[in-house]
Specification:
alpha+beta; 2 strands; two-stranded antiparallel ribbon
Length: about 80
Amino acid sequence: MANEYYQKVAYIGFQNPDGTYRINVPLYVKVSELNKNGMTDMQEELIHRISERMMNRYEKQISEFIANASKGGTQNGTV
């Protein structure tokens, strides 16, 4: 059986069933055919694109959550 390799691409947040939030959960993608950087060129490009989009999305959601929390309310589905 070949070794399986995983690359951390982002930290994400989840809303728990009780309404609290779990943040800084690492997100990994499975990679194969590693090059000197530990991944293929295509995978490296894809990881960068995914990371950039996720960072932008979660930065916006965390900002909205903090703004709502400072106003005394929360918004379902954020962070």
